Structures are given as structure tokens and as C-alpha cells.
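Q: What would this chain look like folded?
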Amino acid sequence: MAAETYGGQTVPSAALSAVARAAALVADDLAATERRLRELLKSDIAEIPQVAGHVALCGGKRLRPLVALLAAQAAGYDAPHRITIAAVGELVHTATLLHDDVVDGGEFRRGRPAARMAYGNGLAVLTGNFCLCSGLVAIAESGQTHAYGTLAQTVMRMSEGEVAQLSSAGSVPSRARYYDIVDRKTAALIAWCASIGGLGDPKYTDALLRFGTELGYAFQIADDVLDVTPNLKLDGGAGPGVTGKECGQDLRDGKVTLPLALACEAEPALLRQVQEALAVGPPMAANVVSEILQAVASTDAAQSARATAQQHAASACEALLTLPPTPARDALSELAGYVVQREY
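A: My prediction, written as C-alpha cells:
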């Protein structure tokens, strides 16, 4: 399988092409965003940039900054603040990753030991707090009142999503509950990043928010499909695969995502098995996780979930039709297709 490097990770060339074309349109802005991100991670307390950099500067897809910069270009918003906003999108995402790994007991992130494994839970949580605060301060100092207010609301909604997901662990959530969690936990930040184009012309705000929300749904559902799909490394070896985490991690943590819920709907016996396993409490035993994943693979749940993700990607593209036709708008549409078809 042909592979290339993007964001510090080796990924299939086919999956990379859409991202590479999109990144080329805003290459200078992405470079400026990386510099701004490093500035926002600075602190007199040496451990803070060290711990934060373990996640923020070790690669990653940079999806949120890319969405922000492309949305700005597509809507004709060229104010310098777009660079800070794009960097803050990645900074807030970094905070959630630091926090998530502590809450979930995650051991791997982006193909390497999670920050909490290297520095401890305390430093990981507190550094995540620093990242959130640094992002809010940066937007406040930019003078963009609307961006600051919506970011604060976004961080609050993300926190609600995390709490909702944690409280739902150990049960099979309804479809509505699942979407509520995804809307807050994942889609909210992507939608905020996309909405910055509306700072230049508010008539584009609603369309960009809808695009970002639908893209967030597509991204998370596709991610959930990857979590129940055999996660082989590109070289065929063992260990965390191209996603940078072990397959079945959500299930191990007691979280039931869309593909697993669909499989349970199709197979009542599997539903009983999952409920019994969840009743024991996380972490779920490795052999039980393996049995359940094999049962899921025997259904068409993963394919159905991916089809749902494709529907959200199509809705994201439809929302973009409000914007004038430009290469940046086309690149956003390609990204919507990429998040569904990606293999990492």
C-alpha cells in the first residue's frame, strides 16, 4: 500500500490527497498558524510547553486549523485574526485530548504514549486547563468579541458533552443521546472553526456553522467505525495502527458508539452480551472486547454507520453552496469526503 507522511504520521496516499490539496491552498497561513500555536504554548513553567507539546507538536491532522483557514478564504475573510483563531482551534483540541486520555485511561495518542503516561495525570489535566485558558485569552486579546463569546460557549458545550459521554458509559445510548454527545463533544469545535468566515460577512455564518456541524458528525462517526474495525499497521505489524490507538478502545472504556449500537439493534443476542459486559464495569476484558468486535464484524453495522457518515458529509457539502464557488470551497467539500473515507 503506497503511503506518505502528513502531520508526522505515515498514512495511505489515497487518504492524503484531499488533505494535501487543501493544505496547499493555505500553505502560508498553516505555517503562520503553527508559529502562533507555539507562541500560545509558551510559559515560564517549563513543564507546560513540554507536556502540551507532547500532543500538539507531535503531528496530527490539523483538521480544525485547516477548516478555519479554508472557511476564511472561501468567505473572503482575510483579517490577521484568522491565524490566531485557527491556532486556538488546535489548542482547544489539544486540551481535550490531554483531558480525554486521563478520563479514559488512554495509553496511546497519535501512535505514541499518551502525555499522562509520560508526565502523569496531574500534569496532563493542568496543562489541558492551561491550553483552554491560553486560547480564551488569545481570542479576547484579538478584540473579536463575537469569536470570544462563541468560543466560551463552545468550550462549555464540549464540557457538557464529555460529562454526558461519561455518564452514558456502561449503557447502550439511544440514537438521540449518541448524537447529542457527538454534537457537543466533537462537532461544536469544528463548527466554531468553520464559522470564522462569517466574521467578515455574517451572511455566511449559518452556512459555515452547518457545514462544520455536519463535518463533525461525519468525522466522529467515521472515527467510531475505525474503532470497531481491525486496526493493522501499514507494515502489517502489531500494536497501535494507523489511527494511533488500539482498536476497541471505546468499548474497553464502556462507551457504546453508533456502529456497535447498530449491531446490537440487528442482533438481540449481541445486545444482551454487551449489556452483561458493560454491567461488569470498565475496563472491559480484552477477550470480551475481541468477542464483541468479531460479532460486530459479522453484521453490516460498520458499513451502515459509514453510510450515515457519508450522508452527513453530503449535507456538509450542500451547506457550502451558499458560498461563492472558489477553490477553497471545493477544498472544504473534498475534506468532507476525506473524513469519511480516511483510514487513520
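Confidence is low (pLDDT under 50) at residues 1-12, 232-243.
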